Amino acid sequence: MDPREAALREEIVRVMLAMDSRGLNRGASGNVSARWGEAVLITPTGVPPADLDPSQIVRIGADGCWPADGPRPSSEWRMHEGILGGRPDVNAVVHCHSRHATILACAGREIPSMHYMVAIAGGSSIPLAPYATFGSSELADGVVETLAGRNAALMANHGQIALGPTLSRALAIAEEVEEQAAVYWGTLAIGGPKLLSAEEMTRVLELFRTYGQQAPGKT
Ligand SMILES: [Zn+2]
Question: Measured in angstroms, how far is the CA atom of residue 2 from the centroid of ligand 1?
Answer without folding.
Answer: 30
